[in-house]
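Data card: per-record layout.
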Amino acid sequence: MEVSRPMLSSEDRVQLDQFVRDFNIGLNPARQPQQSLGKDDFLKILITQLSYQDPTSPMEDKEFIAQMAQFSTLEQMTAMAGDFSKLTSMLMGSEASSSLGKNVEIVEGDRVTQGLVQAVTRGEIPQVLVNGSFYKWEDVSKVFAE
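The structure for this 146-residue chain is written out next.
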């Protein structure tokens, strides 16, 4: 005996998908979906693969070495990306500091502000104090010679 199932309309399907997504996020609000795999994910996949391999036909040495090389490369690339971020922050901070005492032009959307840089904050996002307000260094479009 065949049981017939009701078909969902496209609107009902969208609502159901949204409900499931919201429910899953409610279970663990700190966890956000990711679009890419990281080194921890790669290691979990490798461990799972090793755990469930067929003992009569284990993974070839060459395959295992290749996967470990990929993992090592991924780890090194992740470390390099972090180092490049730190270097970028340091360069931006140095560049912002060199503008101290100079006139700058700051563009924020349609608003343009000009003035003397009175102070500079350091950190991941350097800021400059111009005309009594702090602006992100990345919003400075011009630095004028004295």
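Known properties of this structure: The first helix runs from residue 10 to 27. Strands lie at 103-108, 111-121, 127-130, 133-136, 140-144.

See the next section for split statistics.
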